[in-house]
Specification:
two-stranded antiparallel sheet; mainly alpha; elongated
């Protein structure tokens, strides 16, 4: 979900208001129920706070939580890379070398 990514990247700051469910549904051409479900998931996961009559806002985020979430995403990609390496005979040392190059941002 784009809202979650925007919160995690810092593009949406703590306290930032989110569009109403109806307005968002209209702007992205989906049902209000779809947006409601997405907002409920974001609230359950601690990304937004919703107050009846006021709307939904970006929740204060715990830096540790964000780091854990990002680490989980990295693990998924590393798992995929390891599977590709294993099934194609790429030595783990080569994968580690590539990871170090990408991590440092070397060309």
């Amino acid at each position: 979900m784009q809202i979650k990514a925007m919160i995690m990247s810092g593009e949406l700051q703590t306290g930032a208001p989110l569009p109403s469910m109806r307005a968002l549904a209209r702007s992205i051409h989906v049902s209000v129920i779809t947006v409601q479900k997405a907002y409920e998931d974001l609230q359950r996961d601690g990304f937004i706070d919703t107050t009846v009559g006021r709307g939904s806002f970006v929740a204060a985020q715990n830096r540790e939580f964000i780091q854990e979430e990002q680490q989980r995403r990295a693990e998924e990609h590393l798992e995929t890379a390891a599977e590709i390496g294993r099934t194609n005979g790429i030595p783990v040392e080569k994968l580690v070398e590539l990871l170090e190059i990408f991590y440092r941002g070397e060309d």
